């Protein structure tokens, strides 16, 4: 695959052919790096209107919330609910510590993702597909053929709950830890949705009764080191399509949140998990909670991995309709969105791709 300078990349070329050639390798961005490339292929170069601006390095207090002893201490729980409310209304992001998932499980999950991507290329290729009906979907860029530019990222995806996969359906190098990690994250999710319900002024089990917490998909991302990180992104600016995302990062920074119109690095806190409000939770809260735009930048020093846990229903099976929660609606606060299913929302989101525009706009009344 050819590589060109930014100036040359603006000239006409057969983008579709280059995209198909890249996809046909079934090796992803990892395969490009393993081949020894020294320049970013033009399909990955961001167009001029998607310029990669430096992040703001001033010391902003990124929300960090301690969940220790909240079940035993009502005062601590109320404090956490208030902090989650403020973070969800302003940042749309926060980090949690003392969340109950053992460090061993977190580290083994990160190690499992590394093992998947570092196994022999021919073994990886067995899982490569664009068939959305497969249980495990491994490829590079779900929106490869529609996005303005490809992202410097490979991903494998699996819907883990409410119907757990059989062990043989998962990649052998990480199947055991995927199952254990999922059970732990579901427990944490149940706690977070109770807190979020109360932060919205609802009964603690309200979002749970709406089945916001029962479905879970794992997106295991691999961001190889990049020879020209100023030209491309690991993940373009976007908001998540789920109700809630719980993100496990390794120690290498790259995630940035758009806060008050500036990009802010999410700081690395050992043992912490990043939590962010998704589009569907913004929709049902009628804009009370905020699904923030975020992105991932690349670097030329280290590869990095992350595991995004999307709380959303099984797209093939869920028929629930989700609209703004009735308890919040009044003459002064009418519904801002029409009702939709998770399948309709995510299908629209995926078809649109990461084009820099919010999918929520399509569902506004």
Automatic annotation (TrEMBL):
Residues in Fe2OG dioxygenase domain copies: 212-313
SUPFAM superfamilies found in the cross-reference section: Clavaminate synthase-like
Keywords: Iron, Metal-binding, Oxidoreductase, Vitamin C
GO biological process, one term: response to molecule of fungal origin
TM region(s), chain numbering: none
Pfam family, one: DIOX_N
Protein name: Fe2OG dioxygenase domain-containing protein
Organism (species): Penstemon smallii
Organism phylogeny: Eukaryota, Viridiplantae, Streptophyta, Embryophyta, Tracheophyta
């Amino acid at each position: 695959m050819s590589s060109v300078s930014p100036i040359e990349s603006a000239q006409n070329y057969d983008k579709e052919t280059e995209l198909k050639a890249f996809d046909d390798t079934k090796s992803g961005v990892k395969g490009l790096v393993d081949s020894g490339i020294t320049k970013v292929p033009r399909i990955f170069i961001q167009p001029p209107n998607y310029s990669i601006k430096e992040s703001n390095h001033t010391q902003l207090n990124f929300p960090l919330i301690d969940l220790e002893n909240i079940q035993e201490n009502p005062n601590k729980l109320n404090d956490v609910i208030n902090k989650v409310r403020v973070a969800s209304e302003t940042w749309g992001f926060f980090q949690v510590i003392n969340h109950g998932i053992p460090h061993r499980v977190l580290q083994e999950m990160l190690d499992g993702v590394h093992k998947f991507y570092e196994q022999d290329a021919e073994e990886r290729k067995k899982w490569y597909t664009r068939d959305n009906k497969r249980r495990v979907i491994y490829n590079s860029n779900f929106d490869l053929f529609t996005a303005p530019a490809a992202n410097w990222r490979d991903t494998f995806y699996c819907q883990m709950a409410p119907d757990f996969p059989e062990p043989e359906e998962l990649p052998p190098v990480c199947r055991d830890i995927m199952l254990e990690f999922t059970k732990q994250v579901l427990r944490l999710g149940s706690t977070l949705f109770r807190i979020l319900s109360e932060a919205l002024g609802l009964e603690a089990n309200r979002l749970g009764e709406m089945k916001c917490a029962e479905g879970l998909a794992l997106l295991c991302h691999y961001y190889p080191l990049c020879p020209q990180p100023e030209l491309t992104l690991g993940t373009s600016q976007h908001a998540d399509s789920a109700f809630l995302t719980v993100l496990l990062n390794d120690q290498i920074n790259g995630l940035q949140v758009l806060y008050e119109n500036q990009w802010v690095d999410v700081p690395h806190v050992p043992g912490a998990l990043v939590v962010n409000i998704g589009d569907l939770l913004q929709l049902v809260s009628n804009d009370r909670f905020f699904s923030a735009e975020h992105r991932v930048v690349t670097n030329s020093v280290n590869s990095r991995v992350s595991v995004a846990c999307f709380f959303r229903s099984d797209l093939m099976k869920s028929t629930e309709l989700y609209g703004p929660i009735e308890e919040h609606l009044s003459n002064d606060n009418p519904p801002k969105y029409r009702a939709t299913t998770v399948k309709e929302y995510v299908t629209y989101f995926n078809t649109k791709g990461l084009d820099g525009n919010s999918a929520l706009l399509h569902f506004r009344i």
